[in-house]
Structures are given as C-alpha cells and as structure tokens.
Amino acid sequence: MGIVSPGFHGRRRGEGVKLPPGQYLTEDFPVLSAGPTPRIRTEDWEFTVTTETGQKHRWTWQDLTELPSETPTVDIHCVTKWSKLGTTWEGVSLDTLLADVDTAADYALVHSYGGYTTNLPLEDLLDGQAWIVYRYDGEELTPEHGGPARLLVPHLYFWKSAKWVRGITLMDEDEPGFWETAGYHDYGDPWREQRYQGD
Ligand SMILES: Nc1nc2c(c(=O)[nH]1)N[C@H]1C(S)=C(S)[C@@H](COP(=O)(O)O)O[C@H]1N2
Ligand SMILES: [Mo]
C-alpha cells in the first residue's frame, strides 16, 4: 500500500479525525425533530432575552439580520451518534446579542416556537461558542433544520442547538429542558460522552 496523504478530502471521510467517543461520521444532514415543523414568517418572528430580574430584550427579524454576522464552520454531534464535520453557518454571535444585557445569571433556558426547550450554563453561550444562525451552507436555513433561525452551540450535543429559536430566559437556577427532563444529560458534552443522566 502506498503512502497517501489524507489531505482535506481524507479528513472529510474521517481519516485522521478524532470523533467524540461512540460517534460515527455522516455526510448527509439528518433531520431530527420531536414534533411537527413550525412555520414562522420572518414578519412575525421575534427573539427575546429575558433576564433573571424580568428585563426583556427583543429583536425583530430586521434587527437580527442588521447585526454583524459571522460564518462559523463547526463539527456537530448528535446524541443518536451521527457526527457531521465542517458544517458552515451564518448568524449572529450570542456575544453580540448579549453585549448590552445586564445579567448576573448563571443559567439559560432556550425556548423554541413549537414549545421545545433546552438548558445550558450561560457561559456556554458566550466567548464565541454560540450563534443564532439563519443560513446553512450558503443558503437560507430551511424550516426542517430550524429556519428561520436556530441556536448553534456545537461544543455540546446537537439537541442543545434549539431549532426555531424564539427566546432565552436567563436564570439564577438551572432548569432542565425537554430532553433533559426525559433523562438526557443536563450538560451534554460529546467529548465526555454525557448522553444520559449519570454519564
Ligand atoms: N425546536 C427543536 N429543536 C431541536 C430539536 C427539536 O426536536 N425541536 N431536536 C434537537 C436534536 S435532538 C438535534 S440532533 C438537532 C437536529 O437538528 P437537524 O434536524 O437540523 O439535524 O436539533 C435539535 N434541536
Ligand atoms: Mo439529536
């Protein structure tokens, strides 16, 4: 057998790539939704951040899309064991959205149109780790994948990346979301294989 440098295409096939434990690579983009896909017109869309003191910050679709955007390329890891490498998105960093939000909260509960929720420590939304994204692979985010906009927080299992995101509540105490209440791990670090409570 010859010596072949894996290069970029090899890397995409997973050669020389270390995946989180128990994960396999997929090239397609599975859709995982716990219920029907809500259809939200951008005219009706709004995103709110509510602080632990009840202060509300609100962004319309126009507000969101006029903010400076970023185009993160990240690997995503679903708890059902597929991982997808090098996905490219466009959206607004939570650092930008939370810049003027006055809070001392430690936890965030993310709410979606349709009723889905998921929780995480507020610090996991900051420092370039999370975005509200509205484009995927150069195209508008489709409804199936969470359009018009979803949370993207790729360092945690993908169930934390709430599709059809509608708001974030900042809280002093942790409060489990939809899958976390159903027995999935409260934090969900794929590299520590935190799939279920007790992992
Ligand atoms: N609102 C909402 N967000 C959600 C989900 C959901 O059912 N509803 N599923 C989660 C899970 S388990 C995964 S793996 C990803 C799937 O995103 P995708 O359908 O774009 O692949 O979305 C997450 N965000
Ligand atoms: Mo998932």
Structural commentary:
The protein is mainly beta and 199 residues long. The protein has one domain: Alpha-Beta Complex (Sulfite Oxidase, Chain A, domain 2), CATH 3.90.420. The chain is 10% helix and 29% strand. It contains four helices and eleven strands. The strands form two sheets. Strands 1, 4, 5, 8, 9 and 10 form a six-stranded mixed β-sheet that branches. Strands 3-2-11-6-7 form a five-stranded mixed β-sheet. 34% of the residues are buried. The N terminus is likely disordered. Bound molecules: ligand MTE and molybdenum atom (MO). The site of molybdenum atom has 6 residues, from loops. It comes from Actinoallomurus vinaceus.
How many H/I helices?
A: 4
Task: Report low-confidence residues grouped into runs of 5 or more.
Answer: 1-10
Query: In total, how many domains does the architecture comprise?
Result: 1
How do the SSEs run, as a string of H and E? Answer: HEEEHEEHEEEEEEH
Strand content: 25-35%
Specify the overall morphology.
globular
Q: Which small-molecule species are bound to the chains here?
A: ligand MTE, molybdenum atom
Distance between the termini: 41 Å
